[in-house]
Design brief:
single chain, 397 residues, alpha+beta, 3 domains, five-stranded antiparallel sheet
Length: 397
């Protein structure tokens, strides 16, 4: 019994001694380890803010910052390093951006991403060099890199977010709304009766002096866009917004034109040689055509065992004059790869065809990383031109 008690006491003493030694060792090594880790962290931050000195993590919980911002470090020299996560060709592109005390970019780099190394990766390196020394007034002058539009556009947008973050931390005001939110707010301000619900008008007639028309879903009126002006009209066509007589006249003429537009269905079976992808065609009273046609993008011609195609066509609506000039273009439906070919439903892409003819329709910016989608779309546009020529020839027979 005595031996057992003695053994237990020995073990307790040994454990106590070991614990004391470990505590002493930790007390000695912990500051060294922390200092080493801090140096490593500072080294990473110094890559994008070389003269930063020491850094401290900023508590950003009380600020309304761009959604891409995840961490902010304040440097002893007055500059900042911003950590951001954005979406380029693929989601989850994490980058760091250094901003000096005077608001210029000192450096930036991607620290992790799923971008294609030979395309997006190379483009990011090019953009990283191009943004150094830029400030909020000159960052928009940096061009995106052809062939890697999504990567470089996302990179530049993230750099702007970093700049705006520094402005906000300094007590300044920054409009963090995206283009869609700004548009919606401007439309609602012009015509509050619409309750914020609008549909962009698809032009089938040539309307002079108007950039776009948004009709209220509740039929309370519409908003015409002329440059940066948003001019509202009620359901009877009365101009509600303050504007010049010239602009008011342009708005009234535009609304009268679109309200008077009628279109008749064209019997496709009465015409030979039409593309098999043609879904429907209409002829307006003014002699313009409204074509709906299928485009074989990635959903039809792409895919493999790892990433099968959807098996579905892109559906495009395009209006053209009898002379073969595009009035308006719209992606009605698509099921292309999300985040890549799906960009064909963005107005930034399909809007490029407005005003194009068969001679220059090919002169557009392709969707980055979506060659099959882009080429299929363009081929459908070409078939729309061919269809109009066939319909026009039929008139003369």
């Amino acid at each position: 019994m005595k031996k057992s008690v003695k053994s237990v006491l020995v073990l307790v003493c040994i454990c106590a001694a070991v614990s004391i030694l470990l505590a002493l060792a930790n007390a000695v090594t912990a500051p060294i380890i922390a200092e080493s880790e801090q140096k490593k962290a500072n080294a990473a931050l110094l890559e994008v803010l070389p003269d930063g000195g020491d850094f401290e993590l900023v508590d950003i919980s009380s600020y309304t910052l761009p959604s891409t911002v995840s961490e902010v470090y304040r440097a002893s020299n007055g500059g900042y390093v911003i950590k951001l996560t954005t979406t380029g060709y693929a989601s989850g592109m994490v980058m760091m951006c250094g901003i000096s005390a005077d608001g210029t970019v000192t450096g930036s780099k991607i620290i992790s991403s799923a971008e294609t190394p030979s395309i997006g990766g190379v483009a990011a390196e090019s953009i990283a060099s191009a943004v150094v020394g830029k400030d909020i007034t000159s960052i928009d002058l940096v061009d995106t890199v052809a062939g890697a539009t999504k990567t470089t556009a996302a990179y530049l947008a993230a750099v702007k977010d970093a700049m705006n973050t520094v402005v906000i931390l300094g007590g300044g005001d920054v409009d963090l709304r995206d283009e869609e939110e700004i548009l919606k707010d401007n439309l609602s301000a012009a015509l509050p009766e619409a309750d914020g619900k609008f549909t962009k008008h698809f032009f089938v007639e040539v309307v002079e002096g108007i950039d776009a028309i948004y009709t209220a879903d509740n039929k309370s009126g519409a908003v015409c866009v002329i440059g940066e002006q948003f001019i509202a009209v009620d359901a009877n066509g009365k101009v509600l917004s303050d504007c010049s007589e010239e602009d008011a006249k342009a708005v009234k003429n535009a609304m009268a034109a679109i309200n008077a537009t009628t279109a008749t269905e064209i019997d496709l079976s009465a015409h030979s040689g039409l593309p098999s992808q043609l879904i429907s065609a209409k002829l307006t009273e003014a002699g313009n055509y409204i074509i709906e046609i299928k485009a074989a993008g990635y959903g039809i011609t792409g895919g493999n065992e790892y990433h099968p195609a959807s098996g579905e066509y892109i559906v495009i609506r395009v209006s053209l004059t009898a002379q073969g000039k595009i009035i308006d273009c719209l992606t009605v439906y698509q099921n292309e790869t999300e985040g890549i070919g799906s960009a064909c439903e963005d107005e930034a892409f399909y809007g490029q065809f407005d005003g194009k003819t068969e001679e220059n329709y090919d002169d557009i910016d392709a969707i980055s990383g979506a060659t099959l989608t882009t080429n299929g779309y363009k081929k459908a546009i070409l078939r729309a031109f061919e269809s109009v020529k066939i319909f026009e020839e039929g008139k003369n027979q």
